[in-house]
Amino acid sequence: xxxxxxxxxxxxxxxxxxxxxxxxxxxxxxxxxxxxxxxxxxxxxxxxxxxxxxxxxxxxxxxxxxxxxxxxxxxxxxxxxxxxxxxxxxxxxxxxxxxxxxxxxxxxxxxxxxxxxxxxxxxxxxxxxxxxxxxxxxxxxxxxxxxxxxxxxxxxxxxxxxxxxxxxxxxx
Length: 172
Description:
Rna Polymerase Sigma Factor, Chain: A, mainly alpha
């Protein structure tokens, strides 16, 4: 049975995997979380298909999860403004647009909001996780218990809706 073989491989390699992950991400608790996620992903993969070379698959899965974590952390660090005081941030003047630009932007936001409000709850959640939280297809799929392919198809549909709204308000 593949699961019993996997559990044996996982238990025998757990300490080594944990050290590798900890070295990669610099945190034991994050490494523990990634190790747990590795176990879940490999278990899910074994339920879906056979894995011929189990040990390398486990290591590659752990490595990919660590790289995804590091990539997400790098994105978060780029978007944070930690070394700027709130006073400095508030003192930056925003460029004012013309009244026509403001009215157009308001119509666009209202139209997009109305159209996105018509999406199913799952589609809305996919949109928020993807566009506002920056989650990957796989992260969204895991959160919603759907396949990454489903997430991709739903996002393609949602983005087509958004482009359609924009095209109607901004004819070329």
